[in-house]
Design goal:
six-stranded mixed β-sheet, 3 domains, Jelly Rolls, Immunoglobulin-like, mainly beta, single chain, rod-shaped
């Protein structure tokens, strides 16, 4: 640790320099161990200074100034109350006197003011990381944030399940350089849609800390959707066609179907609608969707139940599909509860990036 440097000036009440005063440094609350003495007394300007190698507790010292019969102390335990303090540098030392915090401003080229926020109780001043890009972060189960930064690129393809701890309210933005999986967790890594996200090169995702290593996604800007954010597709079949199948199947005119290729895995919003009818009272017609090639199911279907053989109506159903791989195709499928179901003016609408 660097030498301890103490300096000061001795003046009279009228502001006149006191020359030749003896200045001594003692261990805190004692006058029996002289740490150092300023040789020759204060100079013509009343100045004095000490430089000595620190030892155990050697920073906890009292200073005694003797000028004839006048003695004054500057004690370590003194408390000072002033309206303002002007200093070039500020040094804070831990209670054990083993470490120093030097608060040193950058080059000062203009007057500035730092306003501290209002607090209503005990609070901790977190590290100021705003607006600083850190070194690249290698993908890992836990992304380790670089101190003093709030933005970084993430390299590699390792699945991510957590982010290292920062105080609640801290924000961090990641730009992903490639494809990896962010794993949703309802407590520690809360993602939009409560679903995993597969990134692509150029994706930018921002998080806010909820404390204790818990993070919540704030925003997501996918590279493939840059400039638009949402991509969409629509397809129609207008002819009337029928089926007697009681499991989901294609009609003679397959579809309609929509394929979206935004370049990244995204959430899709899928709407199916059609004019549904059945040739028997109590019969049901179902129009569903095979999401990304998976089997169609009733929960995603528009349904019509006839009370008579002559009734036909348009029905629709909206389904949200999470983490759909770019290039996937969604195709409408159809079934009847029994007998014959009919379908007219079939339409599928797909939105990605929602």
């Amino acid at each position: 640790m660097a030498n301890v440097l103490l300096t000061g000036t001795v003046l009279t009440g009228a502001g006149v320099a006191v020359v030749g005063a003896t200045v001594e440094v003692f261990d805190r609350d004692t006058v029996t161990n002289v740490r150092a003495t300023f040789t020759g007394g204060t100079d013509a300007s009343g100045d004095w200074n000490f430089s000595y190698a620190p030892g155990a507790n050697s920073r906890r010292v009292d200073v005694r100034v003797t000028n004839g019969s006048s003695i004054s102390f500057l004690k370590y335990d003194d408390q000072l109350q002033v309206s303002s303090v002007e200093t070039a540098n500020l040094r804070i030392i831990n209670p054990a006197f083993t470490f120093e915090y030097d608060i040193v401003p950058a080059a000062i080229t203009a007057a500035r003011q730092l306003n501290l926020p209002l607090i209503t109780g005990t609070a901790t001043l977190a590290a100021i990381d705003e607006g600083v890009k850190g070194a690249d972060i290698a993908s890992a189960a836990t992304l380790t944030l670089v101190a003093g930064s709030d933005f970084a690129d993430v390299t590699g393809t390792t699945t991510v399940t957590a982010i290292s701890t920062r105080p609640a309210g801290s924000r961090f933005t990641f730009q992903f350089d490639g494809a990896l999986i962010l794993t949703h967790n309802a407590t520690t890594l809360i993602l939009q849609g409560a679903a995993n996200q597969t990134t692509a090169a150029g994706d930018v995702i921002s998080f806010i800390s909820e404390g204790a290593g818990n993070w919540r996604e704030l925003s997501r800007r996918l590279a493939a959707a840059a400039g638009g954010g949402v991509t969409s597709g629509t397809a129609d079949v207008t002819t009337t066609e029928t089926t007697t199948s009681t499991t989901y199947t294609d009609l003679p005119t397959v579809g309609p179907a929509v394929t979206l290729s935004p370049g990244a895995t995204q959430n899709h919003l899928i709407e199916v609608n059609a004019h549904l009818g059945h040739n028997a009272a109590g019969g049901e017609a179902w129009a569903s969707v095979a999401i990304a090639g998976a089997a169609a199911v009733d929960v995603d279907a528009a349904k019509r139940r006839n009370d008579s053989t002559s009734q036909q109506e348009t029905h629709h159903r909206v389904t949200r599909a999470a983490s759909v791989v770019s290039g996937s195709t969604h195709t409408m499928k159809y079934r009847a509860s029994a007998a014959t179901a009919s379908f007219l003016n079939r339409r599928i609408i797909v939105l990605s990036g929602v």
